[in-house]
Design brief:
Low-confidence stretches: none
Bound molecules: adenosine monophosphate, zinc ion
Helix content: 10-25%
Distance between the termini: 36 Å
Strand order of the largest sheet: 1-2-3-5-4
Radius of gyration: 14 Å
Length: about 110
């Protein structure tokens, strides 16, 4: 399977790691849209939010339990936003489930604020 984020997990494509454990990997977005822009991904390949099931959702809970610590580790001190784009209208470009953590400045209020 030709998945760029699976390759990042395997170390075949370089990334700037923020956090890693047995079930997830967090790294800096290559094209940051805020001073802090981190992606958190499950090590298991799940295509998108649409593919979360009772069988694979435990990792999603683990990711959300860890996001505050990952955000702090990445340098957030004054709040952050978590986004997951799912499908064409949301502009999903990488089809391996990922959660954007954005912070480090007052974020624009349109759409999500
Ligand atoms: P999305 O548009 O929600 O699917 O987000 C995909 C994100 O992955 C974008 O913000 C990209 O900048 C980011 N991205 C793509 N390739 C890499 C890479 N090699 N390392 C880090 N981030 C990447
Ligand atoms: Zn993948």
């Amino acid at each position: 399977m030709d998945c760029i984020f699976c390759k990042i997990i395997k170390g075949e494509i370089p990334s700037t790691k923020v956090y890693e454990d047995e079930s997830m990997y967090a790294f800096r977005d290559i094209n940051p849209e805020a001073p802090v822009h981190v992606l958190v991904i499950p090590k298991e390949h799940i295509e998108s939010m649409d593919k979360i099931t009772p069988e694979n959702s435990a990792v999603v809970a683990k990711i959300f339990e860890k996001i505050p610590a990952i955000a702090a580790e990445a340098g957030v001190t004054n709040g952050y936003r978590v986004i997951s784009n799912c499908g064409p209208d949301a502009g999903q470009t990488v089809f391996h489930l990922h959660f954007h953590i954005l912070g480090g400045e007052t974020l624009p209020a349109h759409l999500l604020g």
